[in-house]
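Thread: "does anyone have the structure for this chain?"

Original post by V.I.:
We have the sequence but no experimental structure in hand. Need at least a predicted one for the grant figures.
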Amino acid sequence: METRVPHVSEEENQDPGAAPYGNFVNYYTFNPPENRLSLIPGTLLENIGLGSERVVILDVGCNSGDLSVALYKHLLHEEASGSDFSKREVHLLGFDLDQDLILRAQNSNPFTQNIQFIPLDITDAAESQAVLESYLGRFGCPRFQLCTCFAVTMWVHLNHGDAAFLSLLSRLASLCEFLLLEAQPWKCYRSAARRLRKLGRSDFDHFKTLEIRGDMAAHAREHLEKQCSMDLVQSFGNTAWDRSLLLFKRR
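Reply from O.Q.:
Generated one for you, C-alpha cells below.
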C-alpha cells in the first residue's frame, strides 16, 4: 500500500523537523550537499576497489536530488584527469516516497543518461524489491555496488517502529556491496517530535514506545555486523550536524 505523504507548506518547511517523513521542500538550503561531501573523498570508488568498472549506485531517500547529483559529480571529478576515468561508467538511481520532490529531481537532473529518479517507498518491501531488481537487471548486477542512505533511518523508525528500523537496515545490507550510512542521533528524534507538536500536529505514532534509543549509529552498526554480514570499514567523521558517516562492506 502506498504511503500518503502530507503536504509540507513553505512556512512549515522553515522549521527542520516539521515534515513527518523528512520530506522537506527546501531541505538542501539548510543542509547543503557540501556538509556531507566535504567528508567523503572524491576517490571513494577507487578506494573501495571500484576504480575501472561499471558502478551502479543507489541513493535511498534522495529528496529533490541535489545531493545525489552532487555526489555523482564529486565521485567522477577526482578521476577526470586519471587514466581510468574513460573506463568508468557510473549509474545512479535515487528514490524518495514524496512524488513532488521526485518530480523536482527529474526536472532538474543534468545527467539523465546516468542518473534516474523515481518515487518509491522503501518500507513497501514487495514493491520496492521488484522495482530495484528490475533496475539492476538492466546492468546484469545482482546488487548495487554502493548504496547511500543519508538521514533516512529516523523517519522510518519514528513512523513505523523498532522492527521497521531494523528491517530497513537489513534491506539496505541485502541490496549492496558497500553501504554509506548516516543515521540521525537520538537528539534529532526528540527535536523532530518537539517541533511536530509545536506545529499542532499529532505526535509520531511510535516515538514514546521505541525501545531502540540512545546511540543510534552504534545500534545500526551492531545490527549490520551481527545480523547482516557487514563490517564497518571506515568512518568519515561527523557532519556539521554531528552525524557520523559510516561505510560498511558486505563480507
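V.I.: this helps a lot. The longest strand covers residues 230-238.
O.Q.: and The chain has a mean pLDDT of 90.
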